[in-house]
Amino acid sequence: MIVYQKTELEHLQILQETQQARQTGLLTAEEQQSIKQKYMALLYSPGVFTRIGLFILTCIISSAGSGMLALFLMEAHLLDSPAWVFFTAAAFYVALELMTRQSKHYKSGVDDALILIVTGTFLTALYWAVFENMHLGDVSGILLISALMFALCLYLTLRFSDMLMAAGSLIALLVFIFFMVYHAGRIGAMILPFVMILCTALIYFLLLRLELKLKAWYYENALIVAQIVVLIALYLSGNYFVVRSLNEALHHSAGVEPVVLPFGWFFWLWTICIPLLYIAYGLKRKNVVLLRTGLILVAAAAFTIRNYFHLMSMEALLCVAGAVLIAVAYAAIRYFKVPKHGITYEQTDEQHLMDHMRVEALIVAETFSQTPGPVADNTKFGGGDFGGGGASGNF
Amino acid sequence: MNFSLLKRLHQQGLISVPSFEKIEQKHQNSLFSLHWELKTLLYLGVMLLSTGLGIVIYQNIDTIGHQVILLIIALISGGCFFYCFKNRKPFSRALVKSPGSMFDYLLLLGSLSFLTFVGYIQYQYQIFGTNYGLATFFPMVVLFFLAYEFDHLGILSLGITNLALWMGVSVTPKQLLMSINYNSQQIVYVYLLLGLLLLAAAFLSSRYDFKKHFGFTYMHFGAHVAFISMLCAYFIYYDSGYAFLFLLGVFGLGYYVYQDALKRSSFYFLLLAVLYAYFAFSCLVVNVVIRLGNDEGPIFLAFFYFIASAVAIIILLIRLNKKIKAS
């Protein structure tokens, strides 16, 4: 399925692994050199700056190219139907195949840009065709679009191991399920959150199974992205705020007065417990994806609670939350200073510290660009400032 | 770490025995690190708490009084600097590694609260009167001193920002592109001067081997500011023939940055030089195309130019990248 050859990918993996091992000081420079000579880089996969540069230039070429095509077609009066947009998408796809198969571009900026452009053009054409030409209703139109987008994104994920497309395909799939259930009328609207919870949970467990069985390392990152998307979707399916707003919106569009949300207690339980469950399981299984997603979703839970219960004023909340966070983090740092249960506070890899320093200096300047103005910026006390100082980097 | 892969390489004789023992040991004691998570939580906590306290103090400013607040800020700042001076390493012209992350944070906190202190006192008591030049000059000198004394790139960036402020503009790439009104000719010249000044600082730091590693930061700010101000000047003087001088300036500076980047083998600056020069050249081409009239022919020409030139630049970038990697 993947566009690249097996040996090409194998060499790439070996080079990446040895590079990492070299940076952590596990390998000597000579060893890395000899491995590099034996396993030559067959794919073109440059550093981040080249990637950005090539991305920009590919976008320039693509827009100029499609502009030129449009000019040609304008003469022939072919711009009235979405066919030419489909044609453009197909042309970009051919270019993508050529760049990856012939020129061996692998995450070089060129293929990244082309994948995005293909998807974007195809989606535009699809919208045009479905809503302008076929006059489908809203729901059936969206069903058709999401089904086709799911197929396209999944194909692009498998073919080019692209992370963004992995996220895109899952989102398309979830949109499809959502509108399928919604389509079922009043009962559908009522069971919607539960169906979404079941579906996302099912997808997550399928992805976990897939990760265990996965032999193709190059899909790992795509799989991780997919897991993050599904975990967030799973949480949002049962989040009180989301479910309630959705409930009201659905009733509103049906012309009925919004009723009290049934099973409200369940959704409150879900809102509060799921992030904690994620964190607990993340720690237990040493799964970074679960852990970090859980940490982010704690914030979502906090906002949801804050939205319905005004326990205290904003500044008191900030102080209390800040103090609690500091206490928890400090206690955990003390606790894990000596590794326990296979968990440590120490950094496992020190490799990038120096590289980050430079980027970091720029980030500091970005964050504080407003601060040094004694003329403009002193009405607010510096409290926010030194807090930001902590946020801006990992020294 | 992919252990089985490294093991295979070891069996092929590509990894020596001592290295592989290290790998094996690491593989057996692999730990799950919470470093990133806990640090993020800590930052978040500090940020929330300080913001909350800031709001509380601000709301109660009538009962607390300005002097008390100023005193608190001064104490924070002074305490941080005291710690830093006590734990610092001796000054050296070369890179000095920081004693620890705690040190870096306290230094940053001290500098930021110092800035707040100066700002506050100027706002409340007009200590520098309406002499805003002096009000910005003083913190700038302090910041540069701190940056060199403690070898801190973050504070150097703050110092550069303050230098720009003192020269009458606020300079970070974000704002450079967004919030400044470019139609003022004077500001463009100030920017240009600032950019050249920073480029000179980058040149001098490596020439005299004085904090050589600061060169990257100087160069980064200097190159962006100088390039963008010259391109802006081109658009400001678009109608007069003397606009082309600025494009010439872009090419000249591009050449300088290009040579310098090759010397340092830094692909980042190479990319900057190529892209800015390409932008300037495209401005020239578009200018010519517009003069040709607005038939379809010139538009075709422009499209064709963009496709051909961008392909050429891609090939150029790939080649340059290889050249730098080889050197």
From TrEMBL, chain A:
Domain of life from the UniProt record: Bacteria
UniProt keyword list: Membrane, Transmembrane, Transmembrane helix
Stretches that traverse the bilayer: 48-71, 83-100, 112-130, 136-156, 163-184, 190-210, 222-243, 263-281, 288-305, 311-333
Name of the protein: Membrane protein DUF2157
Organism for this UniProt entry: Pedobacter nutrimenti
UniProtKB/TrEMBL annotation, chain B:
Listed Pfam families: DUF2157
Membrane-crossing residue ranges in chain numbering: 40-58, 64-85, 105-123, 129-148, 155-172, 187-204, 216-236, 242-258, 267-293, 299-318
Annotated DUF2157 domain residues: 8-151
Coiled coil ranges: none
Assigned keywords, A-Z: Membrane, Transmembrane, Transmembrane helix
InterPro entries assigned: DUF2157
Protein's UniProt name: Putative membrane protein DUF2157
Species the sequence originates in: Pedobacter nutrimenti
Upper taxonomic lineage: Bacteria, Pseudomonadati, Bacteroidota, Sphingobacteriia, Sphingobacteriales
